[in-house]
Task: structure prediction
Amino acid sequence: MTPDAPHILVVDDDERLRALLNRFLSENGFRVSAAADAAEARAVMEGLTPDLMVLDVMMPGEDGVSLTRAMRSGEAPGGDVPVLMLTAMGDAEDRIGGLESGADDYLAKPFEPRELLLRIRTILRRMSPVEAVPAPRSEVLELRFGDFRFDMRQNILWRSEADEETTVRLTEAELSLLRCFAEVPGEIMGREDLVERGAVNGGERTVDVQITRLRRKIEPDLKYPRFLQTVRGRGYVFRPDS
Result:
């Protein structure tokens, strides 16, 4: 294992599962830290910033959804740390609750370890500005809208502030959604279209949740979206030049 290997923080009150994940992830090239609950996870993140957190939802004391929400709001350390939630509750409402709190992905227990590994690597790849990705089918490599510049080759959203550019943190789901719209600006896409294209993993309600989350990152006024607009009865459209 190299010193620059991605660092995963596993947070789960099940001691046996923590040990299994520690061994499995270590064997696959990751550095691993573990915490038994949210309080311990907060303490760990006071001293280090992991590259990704694998977080159980149902834990004694503060649950995973509350911890994620606190991280995203700045009330807990690790605000920019990607979160992959693990839970025995796999229905749609629970998945939506996790996504609304700011999680990047959601995996129901019991799960196949290889799927967990795939999802971790996918999140890390999309969060990394270093690894280039293939050009989208439109061959457009950069899209500008308002104060934003979306580098579609490196999957980075930049925002201009006071003559400087800063990166905007997007979750894996938000990034997938933005890429899908950016590849076809001006094209109206319904909820089913977005699911079929792989922009959203879930049903129609999940699409609306992810649209709202992305708007919070790019829209000056959520009540009157300028770029990601609703087309009543048809779906959504991305208008970068509005």
Observations:
- The chain is about 40% helix and 20% strand.
